[in-house]
Specification:
mainly alpha, 138 residues, single chain
Length: 138
């Protein structure tokens, strides 16, 4: 019974948000309701010469996680694939044990997750997100 409920909720979530809707919804919220840190902290302009763009105005792993990941991974969960949480045990079961492993998943995700390339999230910011996930979700 519980599996059927979880499956139904997952399907409803997919229908409601679409496979790529999480990122879009998160960006719309960020545009309509900027946080105080987004108002007071300006990101430096990306240098010329094809360097990846800096991630909006967020500077900490927590801010970056909230900006790019929290819509689909609230409190370390997973709205698209509930079994694939951000808990250390669940990630270790999938051989994800370091921030670099998390960055690899962000760059080349499986079905249902948005791809976050270097143009969207710099390598430094992606590593901050990975470090935040490892430090935050038991």
């Amino acid at each position: 019974m519980q599996r059927r409920l979880i499956a139904t909720l997952a399907i409803l979530t997919l229908v409601a948000t679409g496979v790529t809707g999480c990122k879009k919804k998160s960006e719309e919220q960020a545009q309509t309701q900027p946080t105080q840190s987004q108002i007071t902290t300006a990101a430096p302009a990306a240098p010329a010469g094809g360097q990846p763009a800096a991630s909006a105005t967020a500077t900490t792993g927590e801010q970056l996680f909230k900006q790019h990941c929290a819509a689909c991974h609230p409190n370390g969960g997973n709205t698209i694939t509930p079994a694939k949480t951000l808990s250390k045990k669940a990630m270790a079961d999938r051989n994800i044990k370091s921030a670099d492993d998390i960055v690899k998943i962000m760059r080349n995700p499986g079905p249902g997750m948005n791809k976050f390339d270097e143009g969207m999230i710099s390598n430094d910011d992606a590593k901050k997100i990975g470090d935040y996930i490892l430090a935050t979700f038991p």
